[in-house]
Amino acid sequence: MLIDEVMSKNTEVVKSTASVKEVANRMAEFKAGLMPIYEDDKLIGTVTDRDLVIEAIAKGKTLEDKISSIVSEPVLYCFKDDDTETVLNNMRKNGVQRLVVLDNQESKRLVGIVSLADIASKCDSNETAKSIVDCCKHYH
Fold this sequence. Notes:
Blueprint: E1 14-15, H1 20-30, E2 34-39, E3 42-48, H2 49-57, E4 77-79, H3 84-94, E5 98-102, E6 110-115, H4 116-121, H5 126-136
Parallel strand pairs: 1-2, 4-5
Antiparallel strand pairs: 2-3, 5-6
Helix pairs in contact: 3-5
């Protein structure tokens, strides 16, 4: 199965100048666990709900601090024509549950986000299910 078949396609993005509070509110509004961060029309990183807790709150950031102060870099991504097993291996290797999805190697335009939940919802084999479990082993 290809990532294009399971990914979320209506992706919200925020500018790097947005505040921690603005991003947290947008993530809550859109029920998003990951938010791509842009600067001058370039994808510079992502912020996850976990980043908001560990990199912002736990490290004493204020709600007014710029989101760029906690952005995760480099951008971890896959392509829309990657198969789910390749993407699951990428997630497991990097210890993440979500990846931004780019259109192709040349333009690298953001076209969506894929999560373990997206893949699990379309899981059609025991092997894929085991790969999903492997991706989650680093979480307690």
